[in-house]
Design a protein that fits this description.
five-stranded parallel beta sheet; 15 helices; ANL_N_sf; AMP-binding_CS
């Protein structure tokens, strides 16, 4: 395999839209939501208008006192304006710190303290809600709100007309962006990216789009605070792809939006694709024009890929599954077709990207790494982040001789394919792979919309499931579908909205297990 080489270029978020607008200025971005930052902008903007908004907000932020290398936390209600603000912060040489709107106030305060009095961009909904009793003046340099007015804050509305600034292009190895880990194991870690590492993440994603000859309309439903979103803009804007950017993954709303915009490429989280299985037989045929599906956030169930691939009327559609981590970006990938999706092993994540990533398996016990004795997945990637802000030792503990150990467990097949079984922290005694069980049972029971196996109060494997329309589970069908796992405890049924999730819609397994323990204690008392 080709050696992994660091990027010779940097990816500068504040310049992407401006450069793309020079060639594709009239191309459209279609939104399914209004922007708190720019309510007058409406739900359609051209690439040229996007570039103008970024330049305008960069001027206003500079006028608010933000200078080069300053940390600027962005924590506001969900919307594409998070990315407009992040690009604007980058454009004046400061470091955007993208904090999920879904983070609780306690976690946000802890991260703000870790940053050491950063600037904070937020909105009145956050100030009047979760931050109502938080002494923000003690932990931030300044609070900037996107609209309206509140005592002790600076409103971007009042800074309209601020003098435009020349864009700043820092050294490619300086911090350029901070995102955070998913938070599935406690307080999220702040992941530090540079322009060079961002370009390292860009490379394999750009190669994927280079293989797509058609200029498809791309529908995106991904977390605005994940590093994937600025990279999606960096890939799509220069290529002139029309974009549909979505806040709302509700199947009926997605159906109406896609029936109108007819995307040829859809990218989202695996759990959103599971929800969209309901659109397979929708009378509006919202999936009819989709040629490509893509997910980069987690493993996806084969049955989901199979259903969606058969819902499109395009010839030879493809489902791209890409496995990666917050710290590394995309690592391995694989394409599935109508013929291969359903029969695929759901644990198969794919192959490394030559020249950009590589992986190896490391034994945990000195024995050969196999399916029955999975090992640590160690990786090298051109997009590996610089570190965790304020937690250098924690980051360094996962670096082993130049390889990054993300604490996922798996094995390599004879064909060189990486198979992911579980995260080490999610393993349950007596269970080979919780993910494997979930894949298999979901393919057998069409009525399930989610299934997660977590340790119960006594470390027993407890299946937590959701059903379509929240109908009661058919216990006889459940028994027939799970007969080879007699060690499973009685299933616990929940509504899909009750499951704790991260910003990228992953189920927070540790939190879910904790809730089961608290429930058991409550019953006992």
């Amino acid at each position: 395999m080709l050696p992994v080489q660091a990027s010779r270029k940097g990816l500068y978020m504040g310049l992407v839209a401006e450069r793309a607008a020079a060639e594709h200025g009239d191309q459209l971005i279609i939104l399914d939501h209004d922007l708190d930052l720019l309510p007058e902008a409406g739900r359609r903007m051209t690439f040229a208008q996007l570039a103008e908004h970024i330049d305008d907000m960069a001027a206003r932020l500079h006028a608010a006192g933000i200078g080069r290398s300053e940390h600027v936390a962005i924590h506001k209600s969900n919307g594409f304006d998070i990315n407009i603000l992040s690009c604007a912060v980058s454009r004046i040489g400061a470091v955007p710190v993208q904090l999920s709107p879904a983070l609780d106030a306690e976690s946000v305060v802890a991260l703000l303290r870790r940053l050491g009095r950063p600037y904070l961009i937020t909105d009145t909904a956050k100030l009047d809600g979760p931050f109502a009793d938080v002494p923000l003046d003690e932990i931030t340099s300044e609070v900037i709100i996107v609209a309206g007015s509140r005592p002790g804050t600076v409103s971007l509305v009042d800074l309209a007309g601020a003098p435009r600034q020349e864009p700043v292009v820092p050294h490619p190895d300086l911090p350029a962006l901070m995102t955070h880990t998913s938070g599935t194991t406690g307080l999220p870690k702040l992941v530090v990216h540079s322009a060079r590492t961002l370009h390292g993440r860009y490379r394999p994603q750009a190669k994927l789009f280079d293989m797509i000859r058609e200029r498809e309309t791309v529908a995106l439903h991904v977390s605005y605070v994940h590093s994937r979103m600025p990279l999606a803009l960096a890939v799509l804007l220069p290529r002139g792809n029309r974009m549909v950017v979505m806040n709302d993954a509700t199947p009926e709303k997605a159906a109406r939006l896609w029936a109108e915009t007819r995307p040829g490429f859809i990218e989202s989280h695996p759990n959103s694709f599971m929800e969209w299985e309901a659109l397979v037989d929708h009378p509006l045929k919202p999936l009819a024009n989709v040629k490509y599906f893509s997910t980069t956030f987690d493993a996806i169930h084969p049955s989901t890929m199979h259903k969606l691939l058969h819902a499109t009327e395009r010839s030879s559609p493809i489902f791209y599954q890409i496995y990666g981590q917050s710290e590394t970006g995309p690592l391995v990938g694989r394409a599935f077709t109508r013929e291969t999706a359903l029969s695929a092993d759901g644990r198969c994540q794919g192959y490394a990207f030559p020249g950009d990533t590589k992986f190896k398996l490391v034994s945990r016990n000195g024995k050969e790494v196999t399916r029955d004795n999975p090992g640590y997945i160690d990786v090298q990637a051109a997009g590996r982040a610089l570190g965790y802000f304020g937690e250098r030792e924690r980051y360094d503990a996962q670096v082993h001789g130049g390889w990054w150990r993300g604490m996922d467990l798996g094995y390599r097949t004879e064909e060189g394919c990486l198979h992911l079984l579980d995260r080490e922290v999610d393993t349950i005694p007596g269970i080979h792979s919780t993910l494997e069980i979930e894949d298999t049972v979901l393919s057998r029971l069409e009525e399930l919309t989610e299934l997660v196996v977590v340790p119960g109060p006594d470390e027993e494997p407890v299946p937590v499931l959701c059903t379509r329309d929240d109908l009661p589970l058919d216990r006889e069908r459940w028994k027939a579908a799970t007969t080879e796992w007699p060690q499973l405890a009685e299933p616990v049924q929940m509504k899909l909205t009750e499951l704790p999730r991260t910003a990228t819609m992953k189920v927070q397994r540790i939190e879910l297990a904790a809730r089961l323990r608290r429930r058991a204690v409550g019953r006992a008392s």
